[in-house]
Backbone:
C-alpha cells in the first residue's frame, strides 16, 4: 500500500489484513504525515519500520554505470557530481538532460516536504521564519547548534523567533527526515549531553535550494555529512564526541555493540591540520578502533589511529 495515509481509517483495513492468514502487509510513503510514531500507535506496535536513505556514493556510481574497480577513476570529480547534484535516485535519469531539470526536481521536493507537508500539518503560519530556520541549519551542517543560539542569531538579523518555537521547528524537521540530529557524548564522563546537537541534511543536493550559489558550508562539512549518512546506512548509533579541549566528529556503536571513533577532514594540507585531526583521536584513552577519513591519496597512520582514503572507505562492501 503506497501513500495509504490519504485514505481515512486506513489502519482498520491494515488491521483486517494483518489478521488474514498468509498475508504480509507493506506500507510505503514519503509524506511527512506518515510518521513511524503514529503508525506504531495506529497499528498497536505490530509494525517494523525500515527507513530508506538516498543513494550512497557507491550506489550512485553503480546507478551511473561506472566501474568502481577501475583504479584510475577521478573519484574527487565524481564525488562533486554526487554532492552538487542530488543523491536521490531520480538524478540518474535527470542528469542526462541538464542541471536545470535537477534543480527543478529538488525545488519540487523541497516545496512538497517543507511548504506543504510540514507547514500545513503543524499549522505553521510564519512560513518565512520557518524557511529561514531551515536555511540556517542547512548552512551550518556539522556545527553545534541549540535553539537558543539559533534564535539569538536570527534576532541579530532582525527576525524575532522564540527559542521554544525554534525547538519545535527542529523537531518537525527531524521527524520528517529532512535533517538528522546527532547528540553530544562526553568522552570522559561516558554520558550523553543534552545541548549543542549537530544536524546533517538528508541530501546535500538540497543545498542548491537552501543555500543557492552562496553555499556557506565548506567541502569538509559536506564530506562530514556524507560520512554521517554512510555510518547510518551501516547500522550504527551515532554521537559526536566531546572532551574538555577536543572534539571527535563521530562516536559509533555498531550493530554488534562495538565502539568506533571517526574523524573527518577534507585534506591534510599542513602540519597544524595533521596535529588537530590526529590529536583529537589520540587524546581518547581507550583501545577502541579510531579512524581518520580524508581525500588524501597518500595516507599514514600513527599512534593506533588508522588514516584511510575516504573514497575507498565509502566504496567498501559491507
Residues:
Amino acid at each position: 500500500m503506497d501513500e495509504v495515509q490519504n485514505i481515512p481509517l486506513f489502519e482498520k483495513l491494515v488491521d483486517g489484513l494483518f489478521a488474514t492468514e498468509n498475508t504480509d502487509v507493506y506500507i510505503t510513503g514519503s509524506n511527512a504525515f506518515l510518521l513511524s510514531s503514529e503508525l506504531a500507535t495506529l497499528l498497536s506496535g505490530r509494525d517494523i519500520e525500515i527507513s530508506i536513505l538516498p543513494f550512497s556514493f557507491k550506489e550512485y556510481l553503480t546507478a551511473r554505470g561506472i566501474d568502481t574497480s577501475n583504479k584510475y577513476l577521478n573519484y574527487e570529480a565524481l564525488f562533486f557530481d554526487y554532492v552538487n547534484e542530488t543523491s536521490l535516485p531520480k538524478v540518474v535519469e535527470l542528469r542526462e538532460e541538464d542541471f536545470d531539470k535537477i534543480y527543478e526536481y529538488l525545488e519540487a521536493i523541497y516545496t512538497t516536504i517543507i511548504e506543504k507537508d510540514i507547514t500545513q500539518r503543524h499549522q505553521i503560519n510564519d512560513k518565512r521564519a520557518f524557511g529561514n530556520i531551515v536555511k540556517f541549519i542547512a548552512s551550518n551542517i556539522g556545527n553545534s547548534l541549540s535553539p537558543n543560539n539559533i534564535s539569538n542569531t536570527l534576532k541579530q538579523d532582525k527576525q524575532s523567533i522564540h527559542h521554544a518555537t525554534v525547538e519545535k521547528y527542529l523537531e518537525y524537521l527531524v521527524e520528517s527526515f529532512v535533517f538528522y540530529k546527532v547528540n553530544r557524548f562526553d568522552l570522559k564522563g561516558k554520558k550523553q549531553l543534552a545541548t549543542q546537537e549537530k544536524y546533517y541534511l538528508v541530501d546535500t543536493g538540497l543545498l542548491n535550494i537552501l543555500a543557492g550559489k552562496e553555499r556557506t558550508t565548506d567541502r569538509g562539512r559536506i564530506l562530514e555529512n556524507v560520512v554521517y549518512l554512510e555510518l547510518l546506512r551501516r547500522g550504527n548509533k551515532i554521537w559526536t564526541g566531546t572532551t574538555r579541549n577536543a572534539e571527535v566528529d563521530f562516536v559509533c556503536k555498531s550493530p554488534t555493540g562495538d565502539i568506533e571513533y571517526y574523524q573527518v577532514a577534507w585534506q591534510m594540507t599542513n602540519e597544524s591540520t595533521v596535529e588537530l585531526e590526529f590529536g583529537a583521536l589520540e587524546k581518547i584513552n581507550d583501545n577502541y578502533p579510531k579512524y581518520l577519513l580524508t581525500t588524501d591519496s597518500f595516507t599514514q597512520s600513527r599512534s593506533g589511529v588508522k588514516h584511510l582514503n575516504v573514497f575507498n572507505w565509502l566504496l567498501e562492501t559491507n
Summary: The beta strands are 179-182, 184-186, 191-192, 198-201, 237-242, 247-253, 259-264, 290-294, 305-309. Residues 64 and 92 are 6 Å apart (CA to CA). The chain has 13 helices and nine strands. The two ends are 30 Å apart (CA to CA).
